[in-house]
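User: Hey, quick favor. My workstation is busy. Could you predict this chain's structure for me?
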Amino acid sequence: MRNIVCRYLMCFVLFLVLLAFGSGCASTYSFRNIDSVYTFQRFNESRLVSDKISPDTVQYLRLNFLDQEYLENPEAVIAKLVDRFDKTGEPESVIPIAELSYCEGFRLEDRDELKSAAYYALCAEFSYDRLSKGLFSKTNNISSKLVIAAGLYNSSVSRGVLLWQKTKTPWTKDLVLDLGYRKYSIAVKTDSDNLFNPGFFDNICSSYDYEVDGFTNTYRSNGLGASLFGVHMKSKSDEDMYYPRAAYMPMTAVLEFKHRAGDDKTQARTADLRFYNAMRTDKMDLDGTPFRIDADFTVPLTIFLAGNDPSRFSFMGLKNPDKLRDMSNIFIMEPYDPDKIPLLLIHGLYSTPATFLEMYNDLISRVPISCFQEADSLSVNLASSSDKSTSSRLISLKSR
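Assistant: No problem, here it is.
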């Protein structure tokens, strides 16, 4: 019996020795299989939501012996790369400059708003010029670098718009940004019926900052420009008569850089900022070429409904309609468009406009939809005059 116990003890000790020896010789490298689509998405999103640079740009810095210097002084490295590009026009440096500028802008957002906005403008400029050569030239040369440039452009314009708003600089005043080796003068343009005036909104938010649930389909358009939405709080003016208490409207910000007159890079480069009404158009014009805009329709609608879900009034409207009398009205979610025929949706008994929300989400950019919120003991008589403006519609509510 003692021999058996000793044998087991020796085997156990030998196992521990082998385990320790094996762990010491084990490779420090390993791998595992993951979803390639997820990898690409994570790789591209990481460069847009933090100040950490991508492996491609890390490699570029290492090959140019700038990796350690970047850790110590990122602004100096960005300035050095821009200076090299100005002298050599090296195409390989465009995406690294854009990405490093984006990361620096992200890092400075809470420290120096104007300087952060200047780095976002630098990112947008290099991305825009890269897209201009790759897309606007109509060579049909679509590459992964162009996809990255489009993502950097869209995100940098989005962050820049939010910073403009945060600095409380009036939209009517040009935003001047200065990095020393690059200067920008940005002006808001409202020279088309398809554009929003940003002053119409009480707040502008980025759709990229939200993840929403609730709808069967998520409806968005992939393209160029910053996917935003504006929040307009209802006022007592006649123009706001048919808006809900807060209207959330999808739009796209596009920053178009103008060509410099000369080669002096220290002269301010002018750029026009336009806010496209995504419910009125799905295209914008850049450098004389039409492109699809990047817009999200489900995000602003979901955020609106999170605090204004009409379904909670269905039973109240049936049981005690007088409480909803003041809420009964036609509601529009976008400015009136005289070139489109509006679709008016009226719900039935024991119901609310929530009945039409899934359809509204699918049609929001195609048809101007108005919903009539009514208490179930009220009737509505609609009469349209020859004038097409919304304010010309005569609405009377009468008790049944």
